[in-house]
Amino acid sequence: MRYNDANGYSVGTVDGVAGIGIATANANLGTVAGTISQANGIVAAGLALTGTGNFNLNHTGNDIGTLAANANGGNSLYHDATNFNIGAVDGVTGVRIGANNLTLSTSGSETHAAAGNNISALGLELLRTGGNYQLTDATNVITNIAGNTGVVNYTNNASLVVGTVGANTGL
Question: What is the pTM of this model?
Fold first, then answer.
């Protein structure tokens, strides 16, 4: 399933169907400008985020297997109810959001699906009590990391500052 719009939009309810529920397929959401937000959850095998807008996907019902992004329009946030991987979805590999901050939130585990599925962002904020982040791809490139979570195992391919990202300072 692919949806791209010139402006921002919200994942909501259409004709009585709430959110996106394609557990065995991938979703590719894109925007040229504006913000993609949500009133309902996204359940999919994989989720690709593309374009130059912001992504604010913080619904507690989100449950995907793999996250990928090539979105450089602004800060982006993704929350998942369980476990997910950074990987390849619908031709998009890793999570690359340019000179913007990325916030990831999970109560489960978050890992890299395979080598080369890196994270590239200005800052990385890791959230959720009990979260287990195993982000050990040797090609990750971020400048600042911060968060309020459980376990963090992170590998970076450049200088890294444990600083302030979003509302959090330090780990």
Answer: 0.95
Residues contacting 152, CB < 8 A, separation 6+: 126, 133, 135, 145, 171
47: Cα separation from own chain's centroid: 9
Determine the Cα–Cα distance for residues 138 and 157; give it in Å rounded to an integer.
6
User: What is the spatial distance between Cα 154 and Cα 100, in angstroms, rounded to a whole number?
Assistant: 19
| Each residue's pLDDT expressed in tens, for the chain with a length of 171 residues | 999 998 999 999 999 999 999 999 999 999 988 999 999 999 999 999 999 989 999 999 999 999 999 998 899 999 999 999 999 999 999 999 999 999 999 989 999 888 889 999 999 999 998 899 999 999 999 999 999 999 999 999 999 999 999 999 999
Residue pointed to by tokens 């590998």: 155
What is the gyration radius of the CA atoms in the chain, in angstroms?
A: 15
Give me the sign of the Cα torsion angle 110, 111, 113, 117.
Answer: positive
Q: How far apart are CA 94 and CA 72, in angstroms?
A: 13
Contacts of 109 (CB under 8 A, 6+ apart): 83, 131, 132, 133, 134
- Tokens representing residue 111 in the block: 């890992």
